[in-house]
Amino acid sequence: MGTRGLRIIKFRCRYWVFWNRYDTYLDGMGDSLVKSIPSDPEAYQRWLQSHRSLFAKWDDLLQRTLCINEDQLRNIKLDRTLVGFLGEAFNERMCDIPSYNPGWADWDANYTYTINLDLEVFTIDNTAHYRLDKIPRDEWMRALDTDKHPYVPNKTSRRFVHPRLAPDESLASLAVETLALTPDDKAYWKSVPKRNVLPAIDDNLATSTSARIRLKLFRVFADAHFEALDAAILSWNTGDLPFREIVFFILCLAAGGSHLALVNQQRVYQSPAAAASFAAIPSDGSPDAGKELVSPLGVGFHMRDQPAGSAPESSKYWFEGALICLVHPSYSSPDVLRKAKGDAIRYGREVCKRISFNVLVISIEEVVLLRAFPDGSVDYSASLPLFEDLYSDFNAQERYNDA
Q1: What is the pLDDT of residue 275?
Q2: Cα dihedral 35, 37, 39, 41 in deg (nearest 10)
């Protein structure tokens, strides 16, 4: 039957997405994938190491390919696309360049199966998760159910594993484990003189054309990346490239000015794989000028001797005079949020001992605004949502496990 679907391998945080045109039903491609994963513990470990070794080789090749030199940038019209080259190597149709952004929403797939070699998880339709080594061979299809999105009525139903129909040992979560908190982590914020306040609103923003455009761009971005963020955000650490890049993109979009440039598409030089590969723009607007590399968010093209991405590598840095502190989305836990705010204030006071300073604690889903004063007191806001339609009221187990 002509039922479209995706087979995805996740390795080193990247999604290798392969297109399948026929028979992707649960009892078709889904069952074939499950049967291909050994149930015997020793055989499973050999299978896992074999697959990790295979994709490690391809990832190493990919990393070398993503490194662009000056000649490539000057002569950007490539003979063949990277997507086609990798697809030929795997003898399958690869949907896109392996990326930190799954991108499955663009392919109108009826079924999606992800083998996560990093966390050892088998995922059906991006939301139902089994441990890769404990998939219940006779019950895995029967235990699947669907429900409606709790906040967005028009969103399609999501699939989950019914906990009463599958063994507990088979249930998996994509959420990374957070570090245990020490008594000092909890005590410092409690000791700070503080006041909960409402953030001030700049009246000039309401009449600013630039601000309206940037808000529109953010809404377009949020809508386009909703499914990817919803499925992956809790599996990222703050040091992971996709997490850092998305936060930095949001900051640049909010700040505007020199941090954001809107470029006429006619000035963009693109490789044949325009939607998936890198591009270049003249650095000073002249066709004869040197070219500046532009890479899609989450892919990681970069110039030789330059790191991938644009974001700072640290989880704390200064931006436009404010201290930015990245925190894992599990900060919705009160203790984790208290630690994040306390760590931010302590870090800032090491630099700004006798002056006031502003802090933005951000988890992608939400932000908290703080202002520290020379007398040691702090004003802080409540958590402010950036992506209101994510399952922000669900804890990690409820969001990814439904157990």
Answers
A1: 45
A2: 170
